[in-house]
Amino acid sequence: MSDELSIIVSEQSNPLDGAAFAAGPGPMLVMASAGDCARFSLRTAKKNLAKATEAFGQVIPPQIGEMSSRAVKTALCLGPDEWLLLAPESERESITARFAKQSEQATHSLVDVSHRSVGIDISGPGAALVLNAGCPLDLTALPVGGCTRTILDKAEIILMKPGKEHYRLEVVRSFADFVWNFLSSAGREFETESG
Amino acid sequence: MSSFRTAKGGRIKRKDAISFSFEGKAYTGVKGDTLASALLANGVHFVGRSYKYHRPRGIMSAGQEESSALVGIDRGQGRYDTNTRATTQELFEGLKAQSQHCWPSLRWDIGEMNSLASPILSAGFYYKTFMWPKSFWKRVYEPIIRKSAGLGRAPRAVDPDVYASRYAHCDVLIVGGGPAGLAAALAASRSGAKVILADEQSEIGGALLSDPGSRIDDEESWSWLASAVVALAADENVTILNRTTAFGYYHQNFVGLVERLSDHLESPSSNLPRERLWRVRAKRIVLATGAIERPLVFAGNDRPGVMLAGAARTYLNRYGVRVGDKPVVVTSHDSAYLTAFDMAENGVGVEAIIDLCTDVSPELLKGAARLGIEVLPGHTITRTKGRLRISSIYAAPIEPDGSVGPERTIDCDALLMCGGWTPSVHLFSQSRGTLSWREDIGAYVPDVYAQNASSAGACDGHYLLSEALNGGAAAGQAAAIEAGYKAGKPNTYEVAEEATCSGTLIVELPTGANPARIKAFVDFQHDVTAKDIRLAVREGFHSIEHIKRYTTAGMATDQGKTSNLSELAIASKTLSRPIAEVGLTTFRPPYTPTSFGAFAGRSRGNLFDVTRKSPIDSWAEKRGAVFEPVSLWRRARYFPRDNEDMHAAVARECKATRSSIGISDASTLGKIEVVGPDSAEFLNRIYTNAWTKLGVGRCRYGLMLGEDGFIFDDGVVGRLALDRFHVTTTTGGAPRVMAHMEDYLQTEWPDLDLWLTSITEQWAVIALNGPNVRKLIEPFVEGIDLDKQAFPHMAIKEGKIYGVPTRLFRVSFTGELGFEINVPSRYGLTVWKRLIEEGARYDIVPYGTEALHVLRAEKGYIIVGQDTDGTQTPDDVGMAWAIGRNKHDFIGKRSLTRPDMLVSNRKQLVGLLTRDPKNLLEEGAQIVATAHPSPPAKMIGHVTSSYWSETLQHSIAMGVVEGGRARMGAELYVPMPDGVHQVQVVEPVFYDQEGGRLNV
Amino acid sequence: MLLIRCPYCEQDRAEVEFSYAGEAHIERPVDPSAFSDAEWEAFLFLRSNPRGTHFERWVHIHGCARHFNAVRDTVSDKFLMTYKAGKPRPTKREIEGAKK
Ligand SMILES: [Zn+2]
């Protein structure tokens, strides 16, 4: 097998490649598609979290809605035995290998879902308003550093709140266009009002 | 043109003139006007015709309760709005309004003759008149009724406006921005609670806007109002929503609001939504929705110029408009005196106050005397005159015995009536609260609350300004405390020289005339009169809900806001039962008419629904594919070349696949990764097949049943490791299968140690089929030996293709040598393009779902949901082989031995060949046993799949037939529109029965 | 739109995040083959459909994805309480207690 046959990384394609949006004075709202990263769905019993933390190389929080985010890695607790792990693409294989070593002592399921979803960063004073155009959550009640799976209009999303006026959402690929179109349609309101 | 604008006063901007037109005639108003106030300022009262009798009608109110002044507003292409209340439509430059309910024109209306024919248009006329002949309904009655009733005409063009939506949460939602609502907002916001204050009017203030004369805490009411609004606006925890109607109160303090953002603007920005639907969840709600003035019921109470007294006061004080120069007031409630006094103080010669009550308070008499207004206590109005505008009334004393004395004529140009006030309890009732009747004020008021709410001010039966302010403040403070905030003692407000207003509940005015011969209107919009209600009762309708439906009182777009209580009072009197016993009709959302646009929101065009696209979709689109929807996905159906039709394209795609290589995008297939030590056991229970012995690196076709024993889904399952499976499902079934599996795993077998992860979108799937496929991919695959022995049919292995990680399946849904290349989605498009490029030397052809269906049908492979419909067992479709013989249990197993599942004449899947090979059966066509059965023909089955097979040069079909397998070789018949087709029952495998092409 | 308390998330969440999943406490028999046709029919098809207190299954499908049980009044539409899957059917007293 010769190297020339290998596909280079730049030949990947994502639904929202390069998408960016800004609206309103300030601006009120800035949205951009987030860069690619490695994603894992981790399923295990809570008692195995210490081991999992070791393998991931960062704290994996135990409570639904908690998110640990340090440097380039993020772990989201989405259900009583479900976590979404985000890490740089470069660590994908090492993380997989470290978890694999543990499967004897700590039963778990680690599934690579790096390509399953795309990320969207939303920030600005209008970020919560634009999300609330289709998301029924009280976003002021979602603490900074919190996360949850929820609904945005007709799409399921995973919503993270890394900052007071900063949200990041994850949406499965085939719903990404819809979500982006919905958010930018709602975001255009900021072109006409102050908030 | 005479102007009825006052010299000064009001909240209008007199210097900002606005041109508008009504019925094509140009007028001028000023900024701050509504269409109604601007028309009145121009002396125009006659603005429309009534729905049934086409009687001339004027402007009755100054608010959303308007039942008569309904107009169409034309904002250009696609923006024509019918049934708009002139009393709430804010004036803007260039506004164009048309009257409704008239044909051919407002002044000369053909339907006015209905008025003469009115004896036949009585209560229940809809039910009685148009009963026969039945065929007349669609052709004659309905078109005529629609045209002459003029329900308004809906625009045919697409609505160009944008409608927004927003979820919001707050501690305290206050509905109504009058004195009670404002005081509540001030009190609640002081505690730090998050407050939303919603009011339907253009300006916050409610009743205060019509009442500049009152003094609150030694401050003029308008100055108090201004500071209150400034204070609230400055508080970042307070959201003030004006032009916003709370239209529905639902479970758990969930309230729907519609905010109107652009209907008042001349040329709104294209990004500005027309309306925004707010879905508000509030911890606590304060209802401060006010009260609606009641009309009085007497002969000729509907002429243009007859108006609610409070409305006349609003036009005077808020809009600077005199509704007449010589008005007469008729009332059963003291509040109408305020109108008379305010008008007289503005130089209007009030002709008389006709008070139905005998005891008039000395204060009011003194006030009237001071202003030179004649008061006629204990008088009634027996009739009125004036065709397009009221010109005179007939007043007469009510004698002690209830009879009516001699009439006296009073000339007038406006008649201002007041029958008391009805608290607006609509939202309260929608919240499922119960009402109680207060005899002293003649009104229903909130009694038992079903949700976390309270009421303040007029909607609670407290009509005085001081009561509204202090009640509002207390309610606001209590709401904040309930919502978890610390709130100090609420403000107390003092209102100087407040006149107590009281009244008597007199709805129908005494008259000397025969009540059966006069038209005294109760519901002005639906033209329901007092005698209609009496007739309904006489005809046996005793429940108020039935009376409402029979007479249609309260069923027009105003939902009876001004008429409900009159209807009730007349019914109560006719039934000789107290009002409290007669009860009220149900209040339902929406409170006022709400546009479909507001409910639809952004769900239009590309946001109407999600269109899921595979990672390879963009290539198919560029290649000119014709798509079809498969659940939410769109999939390429075929790839026409040049001017090919579907038939030609599909024939070519099938031929290429059978002879060399076809490539198709199978990314939409559902995929689930099952991981954990108990994975095989779980699959044993979920599928009919056995999984324990499936080797790592092998695949198996799996059949899944519901607990009812019927086929639920199917797909190939590959074993990647002892504890890891890659499960595939049908495209449409993916979410349902995942939910089904999770359900059993979580609730029935929580002891099993495994997890399910959806990987549908992690992997792009490229299906390659045809004799040359191995040759094509072999050079680019790493880590997998593709040799026939090393990687046989139904094998799976992880490796690389073009350097990209792949899960390679050797499976086939066509009967040819087949591979399904799974690559991570972001690589899908590139790998696909490479394969197309490299495949050129083998004349690779992309094929769509249509060719896929033909190819699989040639092999007799079923499609769950097409060849099955939820009533087929594995045996019904000839797949008893898929049932693991030694399995003690699996989902659906027990049902397979229910008596009905074992009968011999169950419908079974068979192949069908038409006698004429060119004949194509229609999918869904019925199957019968004889060529020309006498009706009713016994239908013994139906066609489930039918295609032209280019490979076989013969049409092929599958169908389900009663006892089908026992009929092998038999002739059956398929009646279709073009005749009865003879078919032969055959095995449902048409091509390569031995399967030799698979194992190469 | 109802608010439903998810016993796993321990939060009141909007109804649109949930799916209904039928009557609760209908346990799949360990050995269905031991069931008579009549018993199996009852298990498969017969449901209580009461006016008033109803025990039912919900799944927080667009949240934590867990199935749980709820006690709901079919007249008022009010959720009286929710509890985790696998917990026994609550007693009258427990339901009364949860109302307060
Ligand atoms: Zn939950």
Structure write-up:
- The complex is a heterotrimer of chains A (about 200), B (about 1000) and C (about 100).
- Chain A has about 200 residues and is α+β, with helices and mostly antiparallel strands.
- Chain A is about 20% helix and about 35% strand.
- Chain A has helices spanning about 50-55, 90-100, 125-130, 175-185, and strands at about 20-25, 30-35, 40-45, 65-70, 75-80, 80-85, 110, 115-125, 145-150, 155-165, 165-170.
- Chain B has 6 domains: about 1-145, Ubiquitin-like (UB roll) (Roll), CATH 3.10.20.440; about 165-290 and about 425-480, FAD/NAD(P)-binding domain (3-Layer(bba) Sandwich); about 295-420 and about 500-580, 3-Layer(bba) Sandwich (FAD/NAD(P)-binding domain); about 615-625 and about 645-670 and about 760-860, Gyrase A, domain 2, CATH 3.30.1360; about 670-760, Aminomethyltransferase beta-barrel domains (Alpha-Beta Plaits), CATH 3.30.70; about 905-1000, Aminomethyltransferase beta-barrel domains (Elongation Factor Tu (Ef-tu), domain 3), CATH 2.40.30.110.
- Helices cover about 20% and strands about 25% of the residues of chain B.
- Chain B contains 23 helices and 50 strands.
- In chain B, the strands form 13 sheets. In chain B, strands 8, 9, 12, 13, 14, 15 and 28 form a 7-stranded mixed sheet that branches.
- In chain B, β49 (about 970-975) and β50 (about 980-985) form a beta hairpin.
- In chain B, α5 (about 180-190) packs parallel to α6 and α18 (about 645-660) packs across α23.
- The N and C termini of chain B lie far apart (about 95 Å).
- Chain C has a single domain (about 5-25, about 35-100), classed as Folate-binding superfamily (Folate-binding fold, 2-Layer Sandwich).
- In chain C, β1 (about 5) and β2 form a beta hairpin.
- Chains A and B meet through β7 and α4 of A and β8, β38 and α22 of B.
- Zinc ion binds near residues 8, 9, 63, 64 and 66 of chain C.
Structural class category of chain C: alpha+beta
Q: Round the mean pLDDT of chain C to the nearest integer and report it.
A: 95
Q: According to CATH, what is the class of the largest domain in chain A?
A: Alpha Beta
Secondary-structure element sequence of chain A? EEEHEEEHEEHEEEH
User: Which strand order spans the largest sheet of chain A, edge to edge or round the barrel?
Assistant: 1-2-8-11-10-9
Number of structurally distinct domains of chain C: 1
Oligomeric category: heterotrimer
What overall form of chain C do the CA principal axes indicate?
globular
The tally of domains of chain A stands at 2
Query: Strand tally of chain A, please?
Result: 11
Cα-atom Rg of chain A, whole angstroms?
A: 18 Å
Beta content of chain A comes to 25-35%
The largest β sheet of chain A comes out as: 6 strands, antiparallel
Helix content bin of chain C: 10-25%
**Mean pLDDT of chain A, rounded to whole units?**
92
